[in-house]
Amino acid sequence: MRWFWIDRYVEFDVGVRATAIKALTLAEEHLHDHFPGFPVMPNSLVLEGMAQTGGLLVSQQHDFMRNVVLAKVNFARFHLPARPGDTLRYRAKIENLKQEGASVSLTSHIGDQLQAEAEVFFASVDDIAEGQRLIPHEKFMDWLRMLRLFEVGRHPDGRPLIETIEVEAGPPVAVPVASGPHRIVPPPSHSRVGETR
Amino acid sequence: MPSHEEVFAKVRTALVDALGVDEDEVTPEATMVGDLGAESIDFLDIVFRLEKAFDIKIPRGELFPEDILNNAEYVHDGKVTADGIDQLKKRMPFADLGKFESNPVVQDFVLVLTVQDLVRYVEGKLNQQAKV
User: Fold this and answer.
1) Which residues lie below 8 Å from residue B24, measured CB to CB, with a gap of 6+?
2) Which domain holds residue B89?
3) Residues B32 and B82 in one domain
4) What are the extents of the domains in chain A?
5) pLDDT tens-digit profile of B41-76?
6) Which ipTM was obtained for this model?
7) Which of A6, A8, A102, A173 could anchor a disulfide with A58, C-beta 3.0 to 4.6 Å?
8) B44–A123: do the CB atoms touch at under 8 Å?
9) From edge to edge, which strands make up the β-sheet containing A101-110?
10) Does A98 contact B47 at a Cβ distance shorter than 8 Å?
């Protein structure tokens, strides 16, 4: 599955805000149907990209251990068309966060111009999924690495954000990880929002 | 301490913003779910807005006691037991549970909460805060 509507993170301030970019290219097939001769990015996909930017910001607050899904769009406004050759800069800011969900404000810019804005709600859906991960944890970490999240992620005190490794219940074990330092966390039932490291 | 009208006006604004309803739809007797169309995700949105508007903290389950309603001890055959109703009354002194009590089908509980209940809840919190 390749439902990536952001290309990489350029800023990821844990628990606060994140910025990601999406480069638009004529190599994206759907643009040739939307519309023939006048390719513009569908607004639904702009919204999806903004939501992905914010959703991972929320997911990190649960150590990437809970299923975080877009649940509600309070409003979404699109001011300019996004066209091949444009680079969209998506910014997400956490407005409010609780264990069961978060509200996030989102913007999309082309250069200095506001291209779109939205306010959305994410829900943590573990109750429905009964603790089952919607996406296997290791695969999820692969995605975050592709998005270069850990290259820019940092905590409020300046410490870098590092990857989390899920282990089965039992005493923590050091697991050598090629990509660098990591933090061991227990499976989902123990994760708590707002835990400081 | 804000007046009753001030509290009502702020609660109304929160509901208009969260649910996309018109101001005149938000009457004291209007039910959150039946009349205003609130869904579960909306309740969290409303909690956030009320916390911000009134500078209060609303812990999970205080406004909507899902832990009682999901507790096998308090629910039999889809209906809330007498003990369960006691628990609900203790937890929600701001709510008028008379109608629910006469036919306590657990699935119907969510239909009980009115705008007035919400206003009373906020007033209760503000009173508590004022005493501290």
Assistant:
1) none
2) 65-112
3) no
4) 8-161
5) 898 899 999 999 999 999 888 888 878 888 888 888
6) 0.80
7) A102
8) yes
9) A68-78, A113-124, A101-110, A87-98, A17-23, A8-13, A153-154
10) yes
